[in-house]
């Protein structure tokens, strides 16, 4: 593992190290938010469909 001189932070140990290396994490944050929203929408749609099917079965 490579350490940035004078920082005491090892590269590859998390977001802090990405900031030290100057890596752009905006795309990762955006992708994470999009995936969370998509997952929430799919979960809502699935639960709504299951609820509708169970009501018809009764």
Task: Summarize the topology.
Elements: H1 15-21, H2 26-57
Brief digest:
The chain has 58 residues and is mainly alpha-helical. It is built from 2 helices and no strands. The longest helix is centred in the last third of the chain and has 32 residues, at 26-57.
Strand percent estimate: under 5%
Based on Cα principal axes, name the global outline: rod-shaped
Major sheet description: none
User: What percentage of residues falls in helices of 4 or more residues?
Assistant: 55-70%
Secondary structural class: mainly alpha
Average pLDDT, all residues: 74
User: Which stretches are low in confidence, meaning pLDDT under 50 for 5 or more residues running?
Assistant: none
Count of DSSP-assigned helices: 2
How many strand elements? 0
As a whole number of angstroms, the C-alpha radius of gyration is 21 Å
H and E order = HH
Distance between the amino and carboxyl termini: 61 Å
């Amino acid at each position: 593992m490579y350490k940035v001189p004078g920082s005491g932070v090892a590269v590859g140990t998390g977001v802090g190290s990405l900031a030290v290396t100057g890596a752009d994490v905006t795309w990762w944050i955006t992708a994470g938010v999009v995936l969370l929203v998509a997952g929430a929408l799919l979960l809502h749609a699935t639960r709504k469909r299951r609820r509708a099917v169970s009501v018809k079965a009764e």
